Amino acid sequence: MQKTIFMDKYPLYSLIIQKSETGYENVGQIIAYFKEKISEHPIAKFIAVFDHYAHTKSLGGEIMEGLKDAQNIIFCFGPMIPNTKIVAVRPRSIAVCELEASFIIEFLEAPKEEMHALMESWTKALVEVK
C-alpha cells in the first residue's frame, strides 16, 4: 500500500488493484468482503455503507471523469474510550472506488497500529482472491 499525505495533513493509505488481479467484479462485492471481515472480527462493529457516488450524483455534484462507483464501509474497532480524543478519530471508513480497469481502496491511518495493520491485510488480500 502507498502512504500519502492528503491535503498536507491526512495520512492516507491507498492500493490500486487492477481488475485482472482480483476475482471481485464490482464495488458491492468488495464492500460485502469487508463487511464479512468486520463481522468475523471479535471487536469490530459494522455501522453502515455510504454510497458516496449516488449521494454526489443526486446533488448534481462534480464527479471525476472515469469514476464508475464510490462507496464507504463504516465500522469501529473501539474496545475502550481512554479519552475524548479517541472518539473524534472513530469510526473507521474504507473507501472503495471503481474505475474502468481498476479498483482503488483507501483509508486514513488508524490511531492504533494493530488495527491499521489489520485493515492493510484485509485490503491486500483482495489481490489474492481470484
Which keywords apply here?
4 helices; six-stranded antiparallel sheet; globular; 6 strands; TATA-Binding Protein; 130 residues; alpha+beta
* Proportion of residues in helical segments: 25-40%
Largest sheet: 6 strands, antiparallel
Shape: globular
Our Rg estimate from Cα atoms comes to 15 Å
Q: What's the overall average pLDDT, rounded?
A: 96
Classify the secondary structure makeup into a structural class. Answer: alpha+beta
What is the total number of structural domains? 1
Tell me the strand order in the biggest sheet: 1-2-6-5-4-3
What is the succession of H and E elements?
EEHEHEHEEH
Distance between the termini: 19 Å
Q: Could you name the CATH topology?
A: TATA-Binding Protein
Name the beta content range. 25-35%
- Which consecutive residue ranges, at least 5 long each, have pLDDT under 50? none
Give the tally of β-strands: 6
Q: What is the second-level CATH architecture?
A: 2-Layer Sandwich
What would you say this structure looks like, in words?
This protein is α+β, with helices and mostly antiparallel strands and 130 residues long. The protein has one domain (19-126): TATA-Binding Protein, CATH 3.30.310. Helix content is 32%, strand content 33%. It has four helices and six strands; from the N terminus they run E-E-H-E-H-E-H-E-E-H. The protein has helices at 27-40, 52-58, 84-88, 113-128; strands at residues 2-6, 10-18, 45-51, 69-76, 92-98, 102-108. It has a six-stranded antiparallel β-sheet with strand order 1-2-6-5-4-3. A hairpin with a 3-residue loop joins strand 5 and strand 6 (102-108). It is globular. The relative contact order is 0.23.
